[in-house]
Amino acid sequence: MLSQAVVEDVLLAALETGGDFAEVFVEDKTSSTIQMLGGTVDTAVSGRDFGVGIRVLNGVFAVYAYTNDFSRENLVKVARNAAQAIRGQQFDHSIDLRKSLITPHHEIKLLPNDVSKHRKIDWMRRAHHAASNYDPVISQTRITFLDEEQNVLIANSDGLFVEDRRVRGRMVIESFASRGTEKQSGQYGPGAHQGLEFFDELDIERYARETARTAKAMIDAEFAPSGKMPVIIDNEFGGVIFHEACGHGLEATSVAKNASVFAGKLGEMVASPLVTAIDDGTIQNGWGSLNIDDEGSPTQRNVLIENGVLKGYLIDKLGARKMGMASTGSARRQSYQYAPTSRMNNTFIAAGNSTPEEIIANTEYALYAKYMGGGSVNTATGDFNFAVREGYIVRNGKIEKPVRGATLIGKGIEVLQKIDKVGNNLGFGQGMCGSVSGSIPADVGQPMIRVSELTVGGR
């Protein structure tokens, strides 16, 4: 991608005005997106992005610049321009780059460019036919297929020089049910950090039928009641509440600025003793997994909360300087156009001992959120509201009837403290997470949980 000699010249130029650390991030990414509406291909877009990001640190002060002109002369010029914002004690630097070899943990057999568009469209048509034939009430389908191959080179003034290849694929399946003027939808988006052999192994029809079943169930549902009540949140996409309302508050981006309810609480009880929460960037072929983070550090399994006690944060190199703590291999960015910062990979509440059947049977009355939808959150306070995509009323230990239009409203840390049942059915859902360093793939996960009281907004 870039020669070691050129990278050394760029790093030295970045340190000329007194910076104490410099980093080069090189990215070469090819990607494609195909969208099918009602069984017909609507759009197909592919492209390639190549660029270089250069970062200079001096203590906790950071400067970032990027360019897609990768000639030596331009890269040295960009590095020197970035360095002009740094005014530190100047030293004679010598940089000894040592190429690191990484062990790839995520199997890649079939590269995206080795798979024809016809084959990808065949996978999509299978999803369309399975969903549209589920029931006459299904009026429309939308299938989106995405894949990318990202090759990166990361080097820094500490001597790091490492390269990595990331390949991901995902299919987002949406089904729409219509009855009169009413419309409801169901969605699933399975994906992996894996070659496109993932789709040969995927039960595409099962996921497609599940989106149609959700849409059909909700088109016939009554409106949900409102008020404070127990809430059962199922696995997989239920983890979005922990991810958004709690996970972002555990990132150094917030903690280092004291803009998080979790700041200064290490060792304290912040959740129910039933709750253990983990962020793991090493899960094999996980959607949010990486061999190395976007600063070149190996990813880790980071225990954030253990039996209710706050054990750690997610920390990047700059956050480590600000907090006086070690990096946790949690630096991520959307592309070379973004400076890295602390982000989640695959974040989940660990499995407990209760079965889902036991949780339902031991609940007198509750809202059961089978699938969660979108929402909003204040990461500083943890206040959130999330839509329930598919919901039911539980009464006397049985699922009584479907309801729609429910919204869960609360504060992340309070929800953690009110969890009184944790299931054994851990599952993951794939999504995209947005923050100051752009949009990145991230898994959310949890088993079924029961929250003793939560505010439900209805119609």
Automatic annotation (TrEMBL):
**What sequence ranges are listed for the domain Metalloprotease TldD/E N-terminal?**
22-85
GO CC, sorted alphabetically, is: cytosol
Q: Which UniProt keywords apply?
A: Hydrolase, Metalloprotease, Protease
What range(s) does the Metalloprotease TldD/E central domain occupy?
112-218
Keyword rRNA-binding in record: no
One record GO biological process: proteolysis
Q: Which Pfam families has this protein been placed in?
A: PmbA_TldD_1st, PmbA_TldD_2nd, PmbA_TldD_3rd
Q: Which GO terms describe its molecular function?
A: metallopeptidase activity
All residue ranges annotated as the Metalloprotease TldD/E C-terminal domain in the record: 226-458
- PANTHER family linked to this entry: METALLOPROTEASE TLDD, UNCHARACTERIZED PROTEIN TLDD AND PMBA
Q: Which family does it belong to?
A: Belongs to the peptidase U62 family.
Q: What is this protein called?
A: TldD protein
Q: Which organism is it from?
A: Tumebacillus permanentifrigoris
